[in-house]
Amino acid sequence: MTDYQCPKCGVRSPVESLAWRCPRCHGPWDLDFTAAPVSLDSLTGRVGSLWRYEEALPLAATEATGGGPGAVSLGEGRTPLVPLTSTVTAKLDFLMPTLSFKDRGAVMLAELARRLKPRRVIADSSGNAGTSIAAYCARAGLDCTVYVPAATSPKKVEQIAAHGARLELVPGDREATARAARSAADEGGVFYASHVHNPYFLHGTKTYVYEIWEDLGGRLPEVLVLPVGNGTLLLGAHLAVEELRAHGLIAERPALVAVQTAAVAPLASAFHAGADDITPAEAAPTLAEGIAIPAPPRARQILSAVRAGGGTFHTVTDDRIRAAQLDLAARGLFVEPTGAACWAAIQAHGLEGRTAAVPLCGAGAKTGVAAGG
Ligand SMILES: Cc1ncc(COP(=O)(O)O)c(C=O)c1O
Ligand SMILES: [Zn+2]
After folding, report:
1. For residue 241, is pLDDT > 50?
2. Mutate to test the pocket of ligand 1, among 91, 94, 128 (most ligand atoms within 8 A of CB)
3. Full residue range of the structural domain in which residue 280 is found
4. Measured distance CA(224)–CA(359) in Å, rounded
């Protein structure tokens, strides 16, 4: 296995150490890992999960096989591309096993945890990441505890419990939950399956772009529109773009167009102010709860990734999100309000006729139709 490496101060730590963040600056880790090229021709007939991109992944699926059970999987990935207009294609990541794109990252964390054999796995989330980690830990036979705010919607709490994870209901806001999880994560023998801090999660979400590349016959659209709260899908997409470029597998970088909710938009504000880092935002209610993150720890990386491809940030109001959710439903696609934010951004801001892929990355079945209007 490889090392964690701090992008800010260069500190390294072996993955086996279970250190969940840089001990010097307390920032999130990157992974000291170089992906090998994936050959389009070699993909035919491979396993129908994200393990098909084995060369590009920091955990080798075949290594895990070694006569025993293969790498953890619930058949995630290979989600369909469905055209919305003549230039914009939707990628239906709400069809993943637990109904959101988070499964791409959760499968990597569960497989990593299975190899590290920690005393227990913990995670914190108010939504899709927690249900995904709980499901993949169940699949991997791992003891898992999920910290959630006490006010989390009963449906999500029910799903986490149904997967056999222990629940810690924390009074107060999302930050109070994160604090409780972080102090548990500092205990010995605990693997903190953090979608924000652990870089293996990003090497899972990057398969979103590998799949588009494969399905388009070795090409990418001119624009990738991506929702951004903590930026795990965007940073995964950036990793994949850089890897495909480094191996000469795409000619041009697509522009990353990042979408935040107007209610909580620290990254969009920093981007348009020309800043390298954010000023933390105030928490505020919004329909797009999945992307309402006042102080994302990977802010600097997100801003630099969007600038690298000549992309930009857009914000969308709740009214736009509500209309986009209904518009997608009228086309046969029922997504949660957060999952409609990117389509709302395209409708509000346009893409100047460029080809684009937009993720519909969370299912409407989990949340229902947005209230109000
Ligand atoms: C449906 C959906 N879309 C987008 C996001 C945003 O992901 P990230 O916080 O990694 O940017 C989330 C996060 O919970 C989500 O559940
Ligand atoms: Zn550091």
Report:
1. yes
2. 128
3. 81-101+200-366
4. 9
